[in-house]
Amino acid sequence: xxxxxxxxxxxxxxxxxxxxxxxxxxxxxxxxxxxxxxxxxxxxxxxxxxxxxxxxxxxxxxxxxxxxxxxxxxxxxxxxxxxxxxxxxxxxxxxxxxxxxxxxxxxxxxxxxxxxxxxxxxxxxxx
Length: 127
Known about the structure:
- By secondary structure, the protein is mainly α.
- It contains six helices and two strands.
- It has helices at residues 2-20, 31-59, 61-66, 71-89, 99-119, 122-125, and strands at 24-26, 94-96.
- Strands 1-2 form a two-stranded antiparallel ribbon.
- The longest helix has 29 residues, at 31-59.
């Protein structure tokens, strides 16, 4: 159940990101198609973050230290761009137009995901 709640939170955060950040867009022929695209892209985003982010943190540890953690913003933007590349390869109507759109998109995604997680009771998240 916790996985489905996390997936829903990520999909909603992604949807809000597409509304707020110019250059991050999800297409679709209708509401259900757009919602399905958001869920699939949320799964891709989750897998990319779960697999690559820990590896990047270990390998790029020195950059995190030298930049006092600001390197994490660049890493998050690049992971967001990778999600776009994978979505395009799967022919999903999700687009990120360049690094700066990915940069701001990753920041908005992180903030919105955090806000939803704060508002959501712990018992719904499976904690």
